[in-house]
Amino acid sequence: MSPDYLLTQIFNGLASGAFYALLALGLSVIFGMLRVVNFAHGAMYMLGAFATYYGAQFVNARVADPNAAQVWFFASLLIAPAVVGLFGILLEVTLLRRLYGLDPIYSLLLTFALVLIIEDLMRLAAGPLGSPFATPPVLAGVTNIGFTLYPTYKLFVIVISLIVCALAWFIVERTPIGARIRAATENPVLVRALGIDVRRLVTITFGVGIALAALAGVLNAPQTNVQPNMGDTIIIYTFAIVVIGGLGSIVGSIVAGFALGLLQTIGAVVFPPISTTLIFIVMVIVIVFRPAGLFGKPESAR
Amino acid sequence: MRFSRSVPAALAVALLSSSFSVPPARAADSGPIKIALITDMSGVYAALAGPGAVEAVKMAVDDFGGKVLGRQIIVDVVDHRNQGPVAQAKAREEYDSGAELALDMTNSATAIAVAGVAKDKHKLAIVTGGASSALTGANCNKYTYHYAYDTYALANSTGANITASGGKKWYGIVPDYAFGAQMLTDFTDAVQRKGGEFVHSDKMPLGTTDFSSYMIAAKNAHPDVLGLLNAGADTVNSMKAAKQFQLDKQMKIAVGLLFLSDVDALPDVFAGSRITTSWYWNEDAAARKWADRYAKAMHGLRPTDIQAADYSATTQWLNAVKAAGTTDADAIVKYLDGRQFNDFYAHAGEWRARDHRVTHEMYVVDVLSKDKIKEPHGWFKIVQTIPPSRAFRPESQSTCKKDW
User: Fold this and answer.
1) B259 contacts B232 by C-beta, under 8 angstroms
2) Name one Pfam family in it (chain B) (predicted).
């Protein structure tokens, strides 16, 4: 295995890790704040991809300029997550909120039901046939990164993901609102006693977590076929990654997301049949030796 | 969430099949005649068979008048979820509750599973969607016909052609299940016959989302040809990745199996590919006439060769039932074996008695680019017609141990 080859594969690992990190981050933030295991995360990821796809259809039908689709793609990096995030907030306010006091199994069942409903509705609306989505021309080529020519789009994905992850970390760890979020995660009753509207904080956090999933969907739209079951496989890996990183830990999700993207890619080179299982093997080992995950605090230490 | 959803489904299937299987329903010969359409309704192959296959079979039944032997014909649609065990349990349930024919079985694992049930139950199965040539080889049986195409035919045409024109070193991208294994075996044989070889092949799970690492590995191996020996969404995603890493600039990309629906999904990506298909909707006036009716019912979509094969197979089977005067599988097999036929789908068709391969013409087609097509979905241009005798595995080389 030549060094160039290995380096290229490392970039591939980072590119797939970028998706895992974004998804795991959202899932983890939601769990930290709401104590809800959001099964519908994959469906939100899929909705993000469809939002950008339908947006592109809408723009193409009205604006003749071929550049419009490209402009829309960059705009949809903000618009699609905002729209899907608002949809998430709607779900939180109307449905999820009612289940906070109950056994976690209820919210789990609710979000699982949402997956089935949302996916089947999308299947009805868009059909099972994948919808094509082209890479924006500016990012379609390859870039010379010294040792190899690498798809520009994948570099773009890595950069965006790193920026968003860094931003999320900064907001939660270094800003006043982040301090409130952390405090509300630790002890919601005490925080409420200090006059902070925890309920609103919860709603916003849920919306942001969903928006992150939708962003991952937008970013992946040009790389795969946009289709209703696109969230199915990736969400299972994401759950494993969140468990490995430590439920509720931001840094843990980001690090584990990228690390497991790398592991999967290298695994695919060394022994392809194991590549998809590798994450679960790591998960089992982590659960045995560090039940709270690599970066998680044990429940008793909270 | 495929696996978690399938657990309750599998339990339900297990319960149903055990409770229904007690009396082997010898429904009175006046009740309806049931066809079980076992297909992928929502997964990676739903676009090339799925709802379109349902429409095609219903059209066939309607065109036949909705009745045969004075009995009403009903079609039961079964979603096999791309899982062999699900298909097996459902097929058993269908046969036990009176189905006389199982049809489609897109996905080789489900096709092989259903063929086994057909053999046990002495009921007929006609595979259109599943591709594995094992269905008329190691897994052949009296009650299963393989109707549309198979991995041997694809390899023999696409694989041999590309090798003969200079692509000697092949690198295979193969899905890790029955279809992929057979595809690789048949392509390896065809490539070797023309003096080429497979330098390496990567097996990956059905529905792999990220093909990047395999593409880099392939690029690094410097083959002449990258063989995408997969199907449906896997083909689309791996082709996209291959183009993203510009493998198409360094080597030939051979697409083992491509459906019209794949090109519909990503026209730009597949333009310029040369592939093999069993039928094309605009191949002649008869095909077109049927495709127009299909399009009317399916919001303008054009049928894939699998969907056309489903219509054709249904009609041929109903003709056989009518002629034989019974739905009894042994009598139908006796009637069909060796019989030659022609319809809008199968040209110079024959129900080969030796191994139950249904042979007919196959076509080598070029995929046109967007600016070259004359009408929507008109992606293919036929460049060569392969006669039945050359398209499929010759009888003399059949590996089917005929035990009936």
Assistant:
1) yes
2) Peripla_BP_6
User: How many other CB atoms are found less than 10 A from the CB of residue B240?
Assistant: 21
- In DSSP terms, B174 is beta-bridged to B203
Do B1 and A128 make contact, defined as CB atoms within 8 angstroms? Answer: no
Q: CA nearest B113: which of B97, B99, B130? A: B130
Q: Is B82 on the interface with A (CB under 8 A)?
A: no
Q: Which whole-number Å values give the CA distances from B191 to B63, B236, B272, B292, in the listed order? A: 43, 23, 21, 38
Cβ <8 Å between A13 and B213: yes
pLDDT at position A129 is 62
Dist. CA A248–CA A234, nearest whole Å: 19
pLDDT tens column, B47-79? 899 999 999 999 999 999 999 999 999 999 999
Q: How far apart are the C-alpha atoms of B225 and B223, rounded to whole Å?
A: 5
> DSSP state, B158?
I
CB-CB under 8 Å, B42 with A151: no
Cβ atoms within 10 A of the Cβ of B3, count? 12
For residue B204, the distance in angstroms to the closest alpha carbon of chain A comes to: 6
H or E element at residue B362: strand B362-367
List strand residue ranges (DSSP E) for A120-169, in order. Answer: 142-144, 149-151
Which chain B residue has the Cα nearest residue A229?
Answer: B43
For A73, A77, A79, A131, A204, the CA distances from A82, given in Å and listed in that order, are 14, 9, 5, 22, 12
B222 interfaces chain A, CB cutoff of 8 Å: no
* pTM recorded for the entire structure: 0.77
**Kind and range of the H or E run holding B36:** strand B33-39
